[in-house]
Amino acid sequence: MNVNEVLSKDYLNKMSFEKTKPHKDSLAVKTLRLRLKDKHASYLNQLAMEVNQVWNFCNAHGMKVYERERRFCTAYDMHPYLRGSSKEGLHLHSQTIQAVTEEYVTRRSQFNKVKLRWRTSRGRRKNLGWIPFKASAISYRMAKWCSTGNHCHCGTVMA
To answer: Could you report the per-residue pLDDT of 101-150, keeping only the tens digit for each?
Structure first.
């Protein structure tokens, strides 16, 4: 088929340009980007450091399981080893810890590696801080977001 045949009206008439209707069970997701006040930076850096500790624990545990049993751990396998860690000193919500383990397992299977790179919180090769929140672990009300009982004030909301 050459360019003239593609651009001909007959060919365009054969193509259907009907708009697809959304499925009745489809879900629309709205992502809010919040700019937080600078006074919360130390608290958020602490949470990011704890997320890195959970990531590194998952990395070490995954390596030990692979050495012992020659299989990869799933996120479900790691949850019992992290149970109660939010009560024992981590200021993260339990669902945030589970989200970190799920992300770790996803990345390990994506790159097909036994050991991923360690996440560092200090130094020259510092990783960017990230805190994965699940929808049920965080609430947003009146220009404040709340996670594990701590409120952070937002500056602006960008859609």
So the answer is: 999 999 999 999 999 999 998 888 888 888 887 777 777 776 677 776 67
Give how far Cα 117 sits from Cα of 9, 86, 125, 157, Å: 56, 24, 11, 34
**Residue 47 near residue 92, CB atoms below 8 Å:** yes
CB 145 within 8 A of CB 152: yes
> Tens digit of pLDDT for each residue in 46-98?
989 999 999 999 999 999 999 999 999 999 999 999 999 888 889 888 889 99
Q: What is the pTM of this model?
A: 0.72
For 105, residues 6+ apart whose C-beta sits below 8 A from its C-beta are 58, 72, 73, 74, 75, 78
State the distance between the two ends of the chain, measured CA to CA, in whole angstroms: 44
The set of residues, in sequence order, having a beta carbon less than 8 Å from that of 48 and lying 6+ positions away, is 121, 129, 130, 131
Which residues are registered as beta bridge partners of 153?
144
Give the integer Cα–Cα distance in Å for 102 and 78: 9
Provide the 3-class DSSP secondary structure of residue 43.
helix
